[in-house]
């Protein structure tokens, strides 16, 4: 089992969403994946959660951190 982490700072545009989606491909079954975003990125959080679910991930947890960041913890669904 591997643990992946993606820290995103600043504005997320179309090309960044494409890169994030490409990153999903390296995560295997039973791996965990944490994405951290700026606290102002609530809309981005919802979009990325939808992207994860469409890519066969299970959202384990999402919320805020103590350091003014928001996060998503997900794992890839086993087939």
- What is the level 1 CATH name? Alpha Beta
Averaged pLDDT: 88
The CATH architecture name reads 2-Layer Sandwich
Helix content: 25-40%
Strand content: 35-45%
Please indicate the count of domains. Answer: 1
Biggest sheet layout: 4 strands, mixed
In the sheet with the most strands, the strands line up as 1-2-4-3
Q: How far apart are the termini?
A: 15 Å
CATH superfamily: TusA-like domain
Principal-axes shape call? globular
CATH topology name? Translation Initiation Factor IF3
DSSP strand count: 4
Low-pLDDT segments: none
Alpha plus pi helix count = 2
The succession of helices and strands, N to C, reads EHEHEE
Fold blueprint:
Layout: E1 3-7, H1 14-24, E2 32-38, H2 42-54, E3 57-64, E4 69-76
Parallel strand pairs: 1-2
Antiparallel strand pairs: 2-4, 3-4
